[in-house]
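Request:
Um, any thoughts?
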Amino acid sequence: METSPVDVMRLAAQESGRANRLVHRAREARMAGDRMPAAPRAEIGASWDRVLRSGIDPEQSTHSVLLELDEVEHRRRSSTLGEVMPLLSDGLVSIADASQQIMVVTDVEGRVLWRQGNTGILRRADDICLAEGAAWSEEITGTNAIGTALASRAPVQVHSAEHFVRSLHGWTCAAAPVRDPRDGRLMGIVDISGPAATFHPTTLALVGSVARLAESEIRNRHLQSIDRLRSVAAPMLCRLGGRALAVDGNGWLAAVTGMPPVDRLPLPKSVQPGRVWLPSLGMCRVEPLPGGWLVQVADGAMDSPPRRVVLDLSLPRGLAVNVISPVGTWTQRLSPRHAELLYALALHPEGRTASELAEDLFGDPTRTVTVRAEISRLRRHLAEVLAHRPYRFGEGVEVEVIRPEHPGDLLPRSKAPVVVAARRAS
């Protein structure tokens, strides 16, 4: 007798129900320290052991202290995963929405940075604190796909009673780590979560495939950025004598002269322009480039810092800063926010505090966290010409601002008080 699709689904549901009851009894026995009637899956058993050692209460809430919105935004911008969010969304969100689930992306600490998907499930997720800024490591929330994937560094699916904390037994989730393809470093977790009734055994394979696609996209973007850096650095290296390299912000090589090439140059965690001791090269002179650093081995006397900066605000879609240094001239494209910041600093050569810049940009002197974060991002490319305490252009740096032909067209979409005042003054 042929079995209908409806019968197949009913049998699958019955099998799933029996499996869930076995897992539930195994969990209860494990909590009590008794012999389990059936062993859980190896990855779940290992997670339960870790969580028990950490002292998590299985009856506790999954609520955690959320990160402030400014901190969430800072982590988003600092994470390479932000670059591939469109790919993750294209690969998972429509499927998650249709299947009554949501996609969640976390950082390496298990903090939720993004979540998208079915609106109703997003509201239900708030009830268990699966929200932006929440903590989902095993040490905080017990066995769950995000935390367990972080702990094991492997894809994992956690269903119903396999969750350590009882309030999650009505949920199912599948998560996979995303690694930096350049060095294997973990960058975060991509996860699909939803009510337990939405469980499907292929979800884990789907999440894993999308995570691999994200890694491939990151690799391609890296190669493209290295090519862009090489196009800027190669002409400079041709004019230099001695040993020199151009590397990206993580030390990956783009160009070299006067010495054998290396795959990667170990850089200090916080690189600053000027003289830097590098164990593999000795004393070096480091200068910022768009997307990286120019590193000259100190074989003799060295140069002075850049002397001139041209802030070009003449075209709303072509905002840029040109830096003239002893070894050449390079251009950095600017976001509207960074253009506003540099314009404010150009108007105040004596310097501005974070509070004063917050007033200049937002009309709110308390928004110093945002200002400091934006200045930090600017200094990745312009540290050689930007000083701090207070924030200002460096000593001896000549600054020129190229404004639009009509002063009223200065950064036309900007609402920053410092810009609005300049337009009105015209």
About this structure: The longest strand covers residues 186-195. Residues 139 and 245 are 43 Å apart (CA to CA). Confidence is low (pLDDT under 50) at residues 1-15.
